[in-house]
Amino acid sequence: MNRLNAMNDKSLVNAIATQPADVAKQVCLYSIMMHSRLVMEFMLTVIGENFIFYQIAEDAVFGIRS
Question: Of 11, 12, 14, 42, which has the fewest Cβ atoms less than 10 A away?
Answer without folding.
Answer: 11
